[in-house]
Amino acid sequence: MAGTHASGRQVPDDADIAIGAGGSQHDDSSSRLETFGLGVSASILLGAVVGVAATWSLDAGGTPLLVALGLGFLFSPVVGLAVLQLRG
Questions:
Q1: CA-to-CA distance for 62 and 70, rounded, in angstroms?
Q2: Under a CB-based contact definition with an 8 Å cutoff, are residues 85 and 36 in contact?
Q3: Quick check: 88 pLDDT over 80?
Q4: Would 54 disulfide with which of 21, 35, 64, 88, CB 3.0-4.6 Å?
């Protein structure tokens, strides 16, 4: 490996094993974080859409919107992890 540290010294050869031959470790974690965020965003958006539809159809004020949006926020980490597992 021809890489060098910021100090100018040679990077050890076993650094390829820790990082992987294809790229840095940060590329993988960034991709996983984006996938998790996609699931979180989808859950919140779905809660908002269901809330608007329920508010429009039930004519019960803003309560259905708040409940559905709250459930979207509540379940967003679970949906984010599910999307991460499905795409990972």
A1: 12
A2: no
A3: no
A4: 64
